[in-house]
C-alpha cells in the first residue's frame, strides 16, 4: 500500500466521524491535515524565504555587498550542503502547530462566517450561490485574523528556528534546541507578552493573505469549472482544484509578501529590556524603517522563494482538502 493510500485509510474513520458530528469540526480536521501535509513538502522553501528576508536587514544595499544567500537556488544549496536535511526542515514542528492553528481554524470558520455575512447583508440562505467578492474577502480576512492570533506563538518560534545558522547567520540568532525549548525561553523572558510579540503583524499578514486566498480560490474554482466544462472539468475535479490553486498562490504572494517581510522581522528581532524589541517598536515602525533604509522593493525580498513555497503549498493544501472532504462525504 502506498503512503498516500495509507494516510487516506488511517484518516478515513476520523474524517467520517468528524463529518457526521459537525461540518465545522470536519472542515477544521480536514484543513489541519491538508495544511500539515502541504507544509511537509514546502518547509525547506520557507527556511530559504526567511533567511532571504532577514539578509541585509536595515542595511542600505551597495554594489558588491557581500551576501551569504544570493538567490533561491544558491541559498537552498548552501543550507542543504552545510546544514543537511535537518537544516532545510528547521522549524517543521512549530510549523505543523501553526498550520493547525491557522489553517484548521480559518478553513473551518470560512463557511459559517461567509453564511452569516450573506444572511446578514443580503438575506441569502445557506446553500445559495455565494459569488459576492467583497463578502468573500471579508469572510476570508476575518478567518485569517483569528487563525493568526491563535497560532502566533508557534510562528514566532518557527521563524526564530529557521533563521538560526552556524554557517551563514542572518538576523538575530536565538539558537533554540527545539519548539518546547523556544516556547519555554520566550515565556521565561517575557511571559504572555513575549509569546505574542508581533501578533499584530501576523494578524495583518494572515488577514490579507487569507482574504485573497479563500475569496480567489472560490472565484477561480467556479470560473474554471464553468469555462472548461466542455473539457470535462467540474467543481469537484482534481484538475479544477489544481488550476484554481495555482492562480490563487500567485495572487496571495503578491498581496502578502510585504506583510510577510514585516512579520518575519518583527518576530526575529532581539528582545529589549521591558519586553519590546531592539529594532522595531511596532508593525508600522518596522514597515517605515525597512522602506526608509532599504527601499520599497525590500518589502518583496524573498518573493520568489515565497511564491515557490506558497504556490505548491496552496495547491497541495486545497487538493488535499478537497480529497479529504470528498472522502468524508463518501463515508458519512
Automatic annotation (TrEMBL):
It comes from the Eukaryota. This is Mitochondrial oxaloacetate carrier protein. It comes from Coemansia helicoidea. The gene is OAC1.
